[in-house]
Amino acid sequence: MSRTEGGARQSRARALANRLGGRPLVLVGMMGAGKTTVGRRLANRLGRSFIDSDEEIERAAQMTIPEIFEQRGEPEFRAGEMRVIARLLKENDVVLATGGGAFVNPETRALVKAEAVSVWLKADLDVLFERVSRRSNRPLLKTADPKGTLEKLIADRYPIYEEADVTVMSRDVPQDNVAADVVSAVLDHLRKQ
Ligand SMILES: Nc1ncnc2c1ncn2[C@@H]1O[C@H](COP(=O)(O)OP(=O)(O)O)[C@@H](O)[C@H]1O
Ligand SMILES: O=C(O)C1=C[C@@H](OP(=O)(O)O)[C@@H](O)[C@H](O)C1
Ligand SMILES: [Mg+2]
C-alpha cells in the first residue's frame, strides 16, 4: 500500500470515529465471517476497545462455549448472551463482535438496533465453511453434515442479518482490507443520514 493510500485510510478512520460519537460499532453475521478477527483490527484502526461477546460469556461463566452448550443448552446460552450484550452496549467507544446467533434473537437485535451502528459481515457458504473447518469450537456445527447445517443456517439467518445498518462482504483478502472496507461503508452510511 502506498503512503497516500495509508494516509487516506487513516483519515477515513478518524472521520468515522468522529461521526460515531461514542456509539458502539457492532459486527453481526455467520460463524466464520470474521467478526472476531476483523473486529479486533477494526477497533485498532478506530482507536477503540475491542470486545467479543463470546469471550465475555466464557469469562463470566468460567466455561468454554462448547461446554456451555453441552452442560446448559442453547436457550440458556442465548439468555446469557442477551444479558452480556445489553451490558456491553452501554460501553462507549467500543467495537463489539457478537456470536453468529446473537442478532437472530429478537430481543438482542432490538437492543443492538437501538444502541449501536450494526454491520453485517457477509460471506458465501464455501468461504464460511473453509474458515470454520479450521477449528472445532462451534457446537452448532457438530452434526453429521456440517456444511448442510451451515447452508440451512444461512437460509434462515440471511434475511435477518439484512436488517443491520450496513453490509460488507468479508472477502478472502487480508483482514486489514476487510476492516478498511467496513470503515468506508459505515462512513458512507453515516454521511447519508
Ligand atoms: N478475510 C479473511 N481472509 C481469510 N481468513 C479469514 C478472514 N476473516 C476471517 N478469517 C479466518 O476465518 C476464521 C474465522 O474467523 P472469526 O473471526 O473467528 O469469525 P467469526 O467470529 O465471525 O466466527 C479464522 O481462522 C480467521 O482467521
Ligand atoms: O452462530 C451461532 O449461533 C454461534 C456462533 C459462535 O460465534 P461466532 O459467530 O463468532 O463463531 C458462538 O456464539 C456459538 O458457537 C453460536
Ligand atoms: Mg467470533
TrEMBL record:
Binding-site residues for ATP, renumbered to this chain: G32, A33, G34, K35, T36, T37, R138
Residues engaged in binding Mg(2+): T36
Key words, A-Z: Amino-acid biosynthesis, Aromatic amino acid biosynthesis, ATP-binding, Cytoplasm, Kinase, Magnesium, Metal-binding, Nucleotide-binding, Transferase
EC number: 2.7.1.71
Cofactor binding, per record: Binds 1 Mg(2+) ion per subunit.
GO molecular function terms noted in the UniProt entry: ATP binding; magnesium ion binding; shikimate kinase activity
Known pathway: Metabolic intermediate biosynthesis; chorismate biosynthesis; chorismate from D-erythrose 4-phosphate and phosphoenolpyruvate: step 5/7
Pfam families: SKI
Protein family (similarity comment): Belongs to the shikimate kinase family.
Quaternary organization: Monomer.
The name this protein goes by in its record: Shikimate kinase
Organism: Devosia aurantiaca
Gene this protein is translated from: aroK
